[in-house]
Task: structure prediction
Amino acid sequence: MTLTVNDLSYSYTKDMPVLKGVSFAAEKGELLSVLGPNGAGKSTLFRCLLGGIDGYSGSIELDGREVRSLSRRELAARIAYIPQIHRPTFGYSVMDTALMGLTRELSPFRSPSAEQEKRAMEALEQVGVAHLARRNFATLSGGEQQLVLIARALAQQSDILIMDEPTSALDYGNQLRVLQQVRALSREGYTVLLSTHNPQHALTFADRVLALHQGAVAAHGPAREVLTPALIRKLYRVETALADTRGGSVLVPLTEGEK
Ligand code: ADP
Ligand code: MG
Result:
């Protein structure tokens, strides 16, 4: 499924535009990393895509269909949101959490069918956490919880996955494991939009980058082409250098003396 955003603008309050003429497309199987400093408009962009905001101007289309014309249910069948991990309040099992991805078809009064449980289990398998199905979600590590939340979105069976800073609460190893998993899902054909505070993650894992600066597109294109020290300077006001390594390009921060 192709997501096309054209000239998207939005203001929460009058005279304070938060998104300014944002245009880009994301193709099937693409991992698009959305970068930008705090307040650049990343979460607001995602809210627009997920139907949480409708007072925007411009258009958001899925395979040529304006998302505003879709019902919540129709939209959920196409785009799934994967939240950051948060402290869960109740003792849901991992299986129950994955089953929540099926809410639009589950009746609150009926227990899930064998078929729905199978689908939730397959989603857990897809990201390598099926062995945790009977565990209490709250007792998992942050990385495992994030993978279960990804499985929950997969159980929803939508083609587009939206992740708002999925790695920000994870340790170094779990960040990389989650990103490797997300990359594998994009290779399977999911379109993934992922915001991150770490440009290196975009460089290592993303196909393309959408850089937002004060609500406008500062750059959009292949990660290795657009992620330059000049762009990093514009976005974050820091100096970096790019180094080629066996593991690909690496952004190295420059300290005062090295500039
Ligand atoms: P990012 O996710 O890139 O950090 P956001 O989309 O959260 O940026 O925020 C973009 C701008 O919109 C910021 O200036 C923020 O203060 C403002 N903003 C975000 N949410 C609201 C809201 N509910 N009401 C008013 N302003 C908001
Ligand atoms: Mg945000």
